[in-house]
Specification:
The complex is a heterodimer of chains A (612) and B (390).
Chain A lengths: L6 H16 L5 H27 L4 E9 L2 E7 L1 H24 L6 H20 L3 H19 L6 H32 L7 H6 L2 H14 L8 H4 L5 H11 L1 H14 L4 H23 L4 H22 L2 H32 L15 H15 L5 H16 L2 H26 L17 H19 L1 H15 L20 H23 L24 H11 L1 H6 L3 H27 L1 H18 L1
Antiparallel strand pairs in A: 1-2
Helix pairs in contact in A: 1-2, 1-4, 2-3, 2-4, 3-4, 3-10, 3-14, 3-18, 3-19, 4-5, 4-10, 5-6, 5-10, 6-8, 8-11, 10-14, 11-13, 12-13, 12-17, 13-14, 13-17, 14-15, 14-16, 14-18, 14-19, 15-17, 15-18, 16-18, 16-20, 17-20, 18-19
Chain B lengths: L2 H5 L3 H22 L6 H17 L3 H22 L1 H25 L11 H18 L9 H7 L2 H25 L2 H4 L2 H21 L3 H22 L2 H32 L15 H15 L5 H44 L15 H19 L11
The chains are: A mainly alpha (612), B mainly alpha (390).
C-alpha cells in the first residue's frame, strides 16, 4: 500500500511532463482528454488508499531524498484523503468540462500543464509529512493560481487580477515559512507528526500559520484578491474556488488539530474570523452584478462558515467542517462551471445583460438549480446537511453568536443566489442578448457539471456516505472521535433532543424567511427579469440585477466602507513608494557627492569597528 | 576546516558548473545579439580565469586571478561607458587593496589565519569588511553597479554580476569557514551591512523606472541576504548563501538576457513605460518571470533551497524579529519585480504584439534550458553532483 501513496502525485506530474513534451503535436481536445484521464487515474489512486485509511490506518512513503534533512515523504491519513479526493475528484470533473470549453483557446499546453500541477500541488500539500514540503506545495499552488489567473496575459484585467493573487497570498505565506523555521529551530524536525513539534507549538506559531491560511482561504481582511481573480478562464475559477486553492488554508487549519491540542483562545480567534468573513462575503455578494464576482464573494462567505465550523473545536464542529468543505467544493465547482456555460453561450456574465436563459440553456439551468439549492441549504442537498451540522455543533457548544451570524448569513445567501438565479435564468431575456446565437453547453460540459450536481444530491440524500467514508476518517485524523451516526436523509435516529431538531429547523427557517419575503413582495411578472429583494416596484417598472444591488448597497453602505480593507493596502503601498522615492533622492545626493560620501562611509564603519 | 567538510556542498564543482553554463549561455547570446566585437574573447578570458582561480590551491594566486578578471572587465566596461568604467575601477581598486591588505595582515596567504585579538584583529576585520563591501556593491558602497548595468551591454552586466561577483563572494565564503572570527567578532556590523543592502537595494529598486537599474539594485538587495547567511555562520547560513549565490547567477542571466532581447526589439532602454512585451517575446517574458521568482526564492525554483536556509540563519542570528524583517525585505523585492513583470511584460502591448518567433531562437533555447535547470535543481538538488549539502 505504501507504494501506492505517491501514485497519484507521480501520475499527475507525469501528465505535466506529457503536456510539456507533446504539447506541440497534440490537438487541443486531445490535451484535454489526456488531462482528464490523468486526473481520473489520480482520483482512482487516491480512492485506492481509502479502504486502509477508513480503517484508521495511515500510509507513509518516502518518494525521494529532497534535501539532506528533508526527504520528500508522504503521509496519508483521513484528512489528507478528504482534501486529496476533493482535489482529484472535482478537479477531474472540471478537466472533463475543459475538453469542450477550452477547445477554441490557444496556449492550452500552458493551461493544462498548470491545471495538472495545481491539482498535484494540493495533493502534495495535504499528503506532505514534512512541513517544508508543505510550504513547497503551498507555494506551488500559489504560483499555479498566479499563472492560471493570468492565462490571458495579453489582457490587462487578467494580469492585474493575477498580480493581486500573487502579492496578497505570497506575502502572508512567509508567515507560514517563518512558523515552520521557528518550529524547526526549537524542535529539530520538519515532520509534523513528531511529538517534538507539538511540544514546541505555541500561540505565536498558531497566529503565523493562521495568517497564511487566512490569505489563501480568503478570510477577512485578506480576502480582497479573490474577486479580482475572476478574469481567469472559468475552469480555473472553478478549481480555485472549489477544490484546490482556497481549501489549502482550511486544510492547514484543520491539520493543526492533528499536530497539537488547541488552546481555547485559538478556537475563539478562528470563530471570530470565520463569522466576520461570513458576513463580509455575503454582504458584498449582495451588491454584485457580475455573476462570477457574486460567486467569488459567496466563496468568501462560505469559507467563513467552514472556518467557523473548524473553530468550534468539538467533534461536531470538526464533522461539520469536514462535511462542509467537501460539500462546498461540489456545489461551488458546479456553480462556477454553470457560470462559464452562461458566459460561453451569452458572451457575458453581467447579470444586467442576462435573463430568461432557462429556455435556451435548459441543461445548464437544471444543474445550476441543484447547486443553487445546495448552497442555500435546501433539504435533500448536501448543503442542507452541512448547515444543519454546523448549527448542531454551535448549539451543542453554546456558541450563540455563531448561530445568529450563520442564520443571518444563510438568509443573505438565499437572497443573492435567488437574485442571480432569477436574473440569469428567469424573467424576460435582456434586449442586449442575441437569442438566436445562444446554445446550451455541449454534452461534455453538461456532464462535467452534471456529475458534480448529482454528487450534491447524492450526499444530500445519503449524507452518511460522506460522513462515514470521508468526513469521519478526517476528523479521526484531527484527533476527534466520531460523535454520532448520521443516517438516511441526514436525520439522526440514535439520539434525540432539542439541539438536533433545532439545527435542522434553523437551516430551513432561514430559507423560509427568504421565500416568505419573496412571496409577499413578488415583482410584477411583466418585463421583470430580476428579484428585488423586497423593494417595492414602481408600477410598470422593469427590474434587473442593478436594482437589487443598488438597494442592497444603499441599505448597507456604511458597512461596505468599513469592511473594505483595500484602501488600507493602497495606503501601505503608497507609503512604501514614498519612502522609496525619498531613499532615491538621498541616494542621488550621495552620488553627486561621491568622494565625500565614500570617505564618510569608510570612516563611519571604521568608527563602528574600532571604537564601538 | 574546508568548506566542503563544513557544509557537505562542493563549491568548486558547483561554481564551475554554473560558470561554464553562464559562459556558454553568454556566447550564444552574443552570437544572436551582438554584445561588442571583443565580447566572446572577454567572456572566454574572464571565465577561464575565474574557473582557474577556483581550482588553484594557492590563495594568493586565486586573488590575483580574480583581480585580473576584474581589471579585464573594467577595461571592457570602459570601452562602452567611461563613467561606468571609472566607477567600477574605483570599486575594484579600493576593494582589492583593502582585501589584499586584510589578507596580508591576517596572514591568510601564509595559511596562518589565526585568531588575533585586539587592534590587529580589528584592522583585519575592517579591511576585509570594507573591501568586500566595495567589491560586492553592498550599501553604502553600491555606487558603481547601477551605472554599469545601465551603460553597458546586458551580457557585460551578466559577466560582472553572475561571474565575477559570484566568485568574489565565494572568496568571502571561504574566509567565513577558514577564519570565522572575522565575522563572529563583528557579527552585528555584518548584519547591519546586510540589512542596509537588503532594504537599501529593495527601496532603490522600487523607486526606479529603468529596468536595468532595477536589476542592479535587486542584486544589491540579494547580496544583503547572502551576507546575512555568512554573518550567521551556521551550516545552514553558509549553505543558504552558497546556493543562493548560484541561483542568483543563473537568475540574473535570465533577467538581463530577457531585457536585452526586449531592448534589441524596441530599440530603447527598457523602462516601466513599456507595455506587454511578453506578447512579442513569450520566452523572454517567461525567462524574466522565472528569474524574478527565482531571485525572491519562490519554490520550487533553486533559489528557495538557499532562501529558506537564509531565513533560518536569520532566526539563528537575530531571532524572530530579524526573520520578520527579512520577510519584509522580500516582500519589497516581490513588489518591485511584480511591478516590472506586470507593467513591462504582461498586459496589453501598445504597439505590435505579434510574437517574434525565430529571431532569437537560440537564446530562447538557452533560456528554456536554464529555466529547466532552476526547476530541476530546486526539486532534485541531489542529482547534481556536489549539490546535496546538509
Amino acid at each position: 500500500m505504501n507504494t501506492l501513496a505517491g501514485f497519484s502525485l507521480i501520475v499527475l506530474l507525469g501528465g505535466v511532463v506529457i503536456q510539456i513534451l507533446f504539447g506541440k503535436i497534440l490537438t487541443t481536445r486531445l490535451k484535454g482528454w489526456i488531462s482528464f484521464i490523468i486526473g481520473g487515474i489520480s482520483f482512482g489512486g487516491i480512492l485506492s488508499l481509502a479502504p486502509v485509511i477508513i480503517r484508521g490506518q495511515t500510509i507513509k512513503a518516502n518518494l525521494f531524498n529532497w534535501q539532506a534533512e528533508t526527504p520528500f515523504s508522504l503521509y496519508f491519513d483521513g484528512l489528507s484523503l478528504l482534501f486529496a479526493l476533493m482535489a482529484t475528484g472535482i478537479g477531474s470533473a472540471i478537466l472533463f468540462y475543459c475538453i469542450d470549453y477550452m477547445q477554441h483557446e490557444t496556449n492550452t499546453t500552458y493551461f493544462y500543464t498548470f491545471m495538472l500541477t495545481f491539482i498535484a500541488g494540493l495533493v502534495g500539500l495535504v499528503s506532505a509529512h514534512s512541513l517544508l514540503m508543505s510550504y513547497l506545495c503551498w507555494e506551488i499552488i500559489g504560483l499555479c493560481s498566479y499563472f492560471l489567473v493570468g492565462f490571458w496575459y495579453h489582457e490587462t484585467d487578467a494580469v492585474n487580477g493575477a498580480r493581486k493573487v500573487l502579492v496578497m497570498t505570497h506575502i502572508p505565506g512567509y508567515a507560514f515559512l517563518i512558523a515552520i523555521l521557528l518550529l524547526y529551530k526549537s524542535s529539530g524536525t520538519f515532520l509534523w507528526s513528531d511529538p517534538a513539534i507539538s511540544a514546541q507549538f505555541n500561540t505565536g506559531i498558531f497566529i503565523l500559520i493562521l495568517i497564511a491560511a487566512m490569505a489563501k482561504s480568503v478570510m477577512f481582511p485578506l480576502h480582497t484578491w479573490i474577486p479580482e481573480a475572476m478574469n481567469a478562464p472559468t475552469p480555473v475559477s472553478a478549481l480555485l474556488h472549489s477544490a484546490c486553492y482556497v481549501k489549502a488554508g482550511i486544510y492547514l487549519v484543520a491539520r493543526l488539530y492533528s499536530i497539537v491540542p488547541w488552546h481555547p483562545s485559538w478556537n475563539f480567534i478562528l470563530m471570530a474570523i470565520g463569522c466576520v468573513t461570513m458576513i463580509v462575503g455575503a454582504l458584498f455578494a449582495l451588491i454584485q452584478t457580475d455573476l462570477k464576482r457574486l460567486l467569488a464573494f459567496s466563496t468568501i462567505s462560505q469559507l467563513g462558515y467552514i472556518m467557523t465550523a473548524f473553530g468550534i473545536g468539538t467533534p461536531y464542529g470538526a464533522l461539520a467542517g469536514a462535511f462542509y468543505v467537501f460539500s462546498h467544493g461540489l456545489y461551488k465547482g458546479t456553480l462556477f462551471l454553470c457560470s462559464g456555460a452562461v458566459q460561453h453561450a451569452a458572451g457575458t456574465r453581467d447579470m444586467r445583460r442576462l435573463g430568461g436563459l432557462s429556455k435556451y440553456l435548459p441543461g445548464t439551468t437544471l444543474v445550476w438549480l441543484v447547486a443553487a439549492a445546495a448552497i442555500i441549504g435546501v433539504p435533500l442537498t448536501n448543503g442542507f446537511v452541512a448547515k444543519w451540522l454546523l448549527y448542531d455543533a454551535a448549539l451543542e457548544s453554546g456558541a450563540w453568536v455563531v448561530i445568529i451570524v450563520a442564520w443571518l448569513v444563510s438568509t443573505f445567501t438565499a437572497f443573492y443566489i435567488l437574485k442571480a438565479t432569477v436574473s440569469v435564468f428567469f424573467g424576460e431575456p435582456s434586449s442586449e442578448l442575441q437569442i438566436d446565437e445562444i446554445n446550451d453547453a455541449s454534452p461534455l460540459m453538461q456532464m462535467g457539471m452534471g456529475i458534480l450536481s448529482v454528487a450534491c444530491l447524492f450526499f444530500g440524500v445519503f449524507p452518511q456516505a460522506l460522513v462515514r467514508w470521508i468526513a469521519a476518517p478526517a476528523i479521526t485524523a484531527m484527533q476527534f472521535a466520531l460523535p454520532e451516526k448520521i443516517t438516511f436523509l441526514g436525520l439522526r435516529v440514535d439520539s434525540s433532543g432539542a439541539p438536533i431538531t433545532a439545527g435542522a429547523l434553523l437551516t430551513i427557517s432561514a430559507l423560509l424567511v427568504v421565500f416568505f419575503i419573496f412571496a409577499l413582495r413578488r415583482p410584477t411578472p411583466k418585463g421583470v427579469s430580476s428579484f428585488t429583494g423586497g423593494d417595492p416596484l414602481p408600477e410598470g417598472g422593469t427590474l434587473n440585477a442593478v436594482d437589487f444591488s443598488e438597494f442592497a448597497e444603499e441599505s448597507f453602505s456604511p458597512a461596505f466602507r468599513i469592511l473594505n480593507p483595500d484602501p488600507v493596502y493602497l495606503w501601505i503601498w503608497r507609503t512604501v513608494t514614498r519612502i522609496a522615492e525619498s531613499v532615491k533622492i538621498g541616494f542621488g545626493f550621495f552620488e553627486n557627492n561621491l568622494v565625500a560620501f565614500l570617505i564618510g562611509a569608510i570612516l563611519i564603519i571604521a568608527a563602528l569597528v574600532f571604537v564601538i | 576546516m574546508a568548506l566542503f567538510e563544513y557544509t557537505g556542498f562542493d563549491w568548486k564543482i558547483a561554481l564551475t558548473t554554473v560558470a561554464m553554463i553562464i559562459f556558454a549561455a553568454a556566447e550564444i547570446y552574443a552570437y544572436q545579439i551582438s554584445q561588442g566585437k571583443l565580447f566572446p574573447w572577454v567572456n572566454l578570458a574572464v571565465s577561464v580565469m575565474i574557473i582557474a582561480a577556483l581550482w588553484i590551491p594557492v590563495e594568493f594566486l586565486q586573488m590575483i586571478l580574480l583581480d585580473i578578471s576584474a581589471l579585464v572587465l573594467v577595461a571592457w566596461v570602459w570601452t562602452q561607458d567611461k563613467k561606468a568604467g571609472k566607477l567600477f575601477l574605483t570599486a575594484v581598486i579600493i576593494g582589492s587593496v583593502f582585501v589584499a591588505l586584510g589578507m596580508v595582515i591576517g596572514g591568510f596567504f601564509n595559511e596562518q589565519a589565526n585568531h588575533f585579538d585586539g587592534m590587529r584583529a580589528k584592522i583585519v576585520i575592517y579591511l576585509i569588511l570594507v573591501g568586500f563591501a566595495f567589491k560586492l556593491a553592498a550599501v553604502p558602497f553600491s555606487f558603481w553597479l547601477a551605472p554599469l548595468s545601465e551603460g553597458t551591454s546586458v551580457m557585460t552586466s551578466v559577466l560582472v554580476i553572475s561571474l565575477l561577483d559570484i566568485a568574489e563572494f565565494g572568496e568571502l565564503v571561504l574566509l567565513r569557514v577558514e577564519a570565522p572570527w572575522i565575522f563572529s567578532s563583528a557579527a552585528w556590523i555584518w548584519i547591519m551591512l546586510a540589512l542596509l543592502s537588503m532594504f537599501g537595494g529593495a527601496l532603490l529598486a522600487l523607486s526606479q523606472t529603468n529596468v536595468r537599474r532595477i536589476l542592479a539594485f535587486s542584486t544589491i538587495d540579494d547580496f544583503g541576504y547572502l551576507m546575512l547567511g555568512l554573518a550567521a555562520g551556521s551550516v545552514g547560513g553558509i549553505l543558504g548563501a552558497i546556493i543562493g549565490v548560484l541561483s542568483h547567477s543563473l537568475c540574473k542571466f535570465l533577467l538581463f538576457g530577457a531585457v536585452g532581447i526586449a531592448e534589441d526589439d524596441v530599440k530603447h532602454p527598457l523602462s516601466l513605460e513599456d507595455r506587454g512585451l511578453a506578447g512579442r517575446h513569450p520566452v523572454a517574458g517567461a525567462a524574466f518571470i522565472t528569474g524574478a521568482l527565482g531571485m525572491i526564492g519562490i519554490p520550487p525554483l533553486l533559489g528557495f533551497l538557499g532562501r529558506w536556509r537564509l531565513y533560518f540563519s536569520g532566526i539563528e542570528a537575530g531571532g524572530d524579529i530579524l526573520v520578520i524583517v527579512m520577510a519584509g525585505a522580500t516582500a519589497l523585492a516581490l513588489l518591485y519585480y511584480v511591478r516590472v513583470i506586470h507593467k513591462v511584460w504582461l498586459g496589453q502591448n501598445s504597439g505590435n504584439s505579434n510574437p517574434i518567433s525565430k529571431r532569437y531562437r537560440w537564446i530562447d533555447v538557452t533560456f528554456i534550458i536554464i529555466i529547466a535547470l532552476l526547476l530541476v535543481a530546486g526539486i532534485f538538488p541531489k542529482i547534481l553532483p556536489g549539490w546535496g549539502g546538509r
